[in-house]
Specification:
- By secondary structure, the chain is α/β, with parallel strands linked by helices.
- The chain has a single domain, classed as Glutaredoxin (3-Layer(aba) Sandwich).
- The protein has 6 helices and 7 strands; from the N terminus they run αααβββαβαβββα.
- A 7-stranded mixed β-sheet has the order 2-1-5-4-3-6-7, covered by helices on one side.
- Strand 3, helix 4 and strand 4 form a beta-alpha-beta unit.
- Helix 2 crosses helix 3 and helix 3 packs across helix 4.
- The longest helix has 17 residues.
- It is elongated, with a radius of gyration of 20 Å.
């Protein structure tokens, strides 16, 4: 194909080429996909809601986790506190998209000892998660699982968010991206006290 023919084809199909280019970027560049999803979360399309009478939620959520200092604890030991748990990975575009909101939510509650925030990282190499958090200046604590987590709590879908009330009952399980740093959700968290 000579240059003249090439430019003729490009001129006729410029819109298709542009669309395929954007599609390729969003499919193969995690930050681009995360950016788009983040903007969609900010529109309010993806809202999480705590439903107090939900029958399809597990009765409790007991599992062990290890914090960044190597200390292992169990969620069963957190009774009396509202526990917000997010399962995430640094390579997961939807996880990356909701991370700025989760970090902002964590900052609002980090000094309130009635709440506990667990960010259970599912990266195979913990240092990748640490690098991601540092690069983006997120202040969320980094935890990893210690042993098995019941499938009713986390079946492998990333991100998954679970909220446990003071009595140890699961009041929210949301698989997929959602917006949590909004007035309605913050009120729902405070109502659990």
């Amino acid at each position: 194909m000579d240059t003249k023919t090439f430019f003729s084809v490009v001129k006729k199909r410029w819109l298709s080429i542009l669309l395929y280019g954007f599609l390729a970027v969003f499919l193969f560049v995690p930050d681009a996909k995360a950016f788009l999803l983040q903007k969609l979360v900010l529109t309010g399309l993806y809202k999480a809601e705590i439903k107090h009478a939900a029958n399809n939620l597990p009765a409790s959520a007991s599992f062990s986790f290890t914090d960044s200092k190597g200390i292992t604890a169990a969620t069963a030991g957190l009774r009396g506190k509202v526990v917000f748990i997010n399962f995430w990975a640094s390579w997961c575009p939807p996880c990356r998209a909701e991370m700025p909101e989760l970090d902002a939510l964590y900052r609002k509650f980090q000094n309130d000892d009635r709440f506990v925030f667990l960010f259970i990282n599912e990266d195979e190499v913990k240092s990748k998660a640490e690098k991601y958090l540092k690069k983006n200046q997120f202040s969320i604590p980094l935890q990893t699982r210690s042993g098995a987590i019941p499938d009713e709590i986390f079946s492998g879908t990333l991100p998954t968010t679970v909220v446990i009330n003071k009595e140890g009952k699961v009041v929210l399980k949301h698989e997929g991206i959602a917006g949590y740093n909004n007035e309605a959700f913050i009120k729902q968290l405070n109502d659990l006290l």
